[in-house]
Amino acid sequence: MDALGITLQQLLTQLVSFLILFILLYLLAYKPIMGMLDSRSQKIKESLEAAETARLEAASSAERVEAEIASARVDGQKIVAEARDAAAKLREQEQGRARTEVETMLDRARIEIGREKDAAVEEVRKEFAGLAISAAEKIVEGSLDAKSHSSLIDKVLEEGLSERKN
Prior knowledge:
Low-confidence stretches: none
Number of strands: 0
Shape: rod-shaped
Oligomer: single chain
Order of helices and strands: HH
């Protein structure tokens, strides 16, 4: 070792200095750096776990939103179907009511037409009876031959028609 220029005293001094420096660096630098690295590693691990949890929650939320949208679609379709059914029922009710009103109006019109017809028939009967009575009076006053009878009927009919026109 002497040939290398190393003495035992120098070797021991450097070895002691190296150990003191190693211990000081271990205590002052290595432990705090390792502590920081461990805490950083733990924070990264926690952040990754939180990100995974957030991703799972987002996926779960997306599934819930899709389920709610599907449910809302089904509900909307039910509401539309119910509205269509209600509109069809209302249309049928209104058509039935309109039919009933039309039938009622037709019945009233038929009754009114029947009354007017009966009144017209009665009026014609009265007129005809009056004409027949007038014709009979004229026949009784005049002769009973066929020619005069025929002319008398024509005369009475003409008088009846002229009275009607006035």
